[in-house]
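Good morning C.,

I know you're traveling, so I'll keep this short. The sequence:
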Amino acid sequence: MQYPTIEDAIGRTPLVALQRIGAAENQARGNVILAKLEGNNPAGSVKDRPALSMIRRAEERGDIKPGDTLIEATSGNTGIALAMAAAIKGYRMVLIMPEDLSIERAQTMKAFGAELILTPKSGGMESARDLADKMEADGKGRVLDQFANPDNPRIHYETTGPELWEQTGGRITHFVSAMGTTGTITGVSRFLKEKNPAVRIVGAQPSEGSRIPGIRKWPQEYLPKIYDPKAVDELIYVTQGDAEDMARRMAREEGIFGGISAAGALWTALQVSRQVENATIVFVVCDRGDRYLSTGVFPA
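The tokens, ready to paste straight into the viewer:
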């Protein structure tokens, strides 16, 4: 008998309806807001999908082989997912991340056997990406580069988008996603637009001065190469305060313990719901809230 492996547990995550947040207004407008629970993936986030995809496809092309060293700059979730995927596939994983990111993320990466290099907070993710490129140029390993690797959005085109279409019976009218690496929103948009060009794709971006883990507004020179501006119909800006408050509400009122960027996506979905009627609005709960406990966002 052929038993499934941990790889087979990635994807096919639940889609659930909100029951309380925005309920009265949604009911009056005939709208439903649905949450895609990507925290149910084995390493706890939507990034499990592209992490395994990037390694698998690189192996298929002969770019890497088990035993090689992989390098990646990460703000957390991709690093955790890659650490898991590297453990599954037999790679040495070196992850580079800014020093101010949550301790739970760093501990989880190490638990999977990854090696961490911390860069100064002042340099942000840009410095981490620069160091990863330098290490690859110096022959210290292979950068998978989630920001430019087409295997990132490709897996969302192949899996996440079809799952949403099937789970809503083709009724989805709006897709809302936090925008960081942009792989999720780019790949899902491509699939949904092929199925129904009228589906609206909405990206959640941080307002000026806000620092929301998992949501980024990149300087032009660091804009992910995988990002297709035509894939996103509308950008809505969310403050750090609104995202953090919504994270607490999501846990207390819906029993959904999601991360701060997931909460930012829900806040954005509520703004969309106030503008439309008879809509099926899906947002991505991209990770779990337990990796943010040390940040003070949730009550101690």
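Safe travels,
E.
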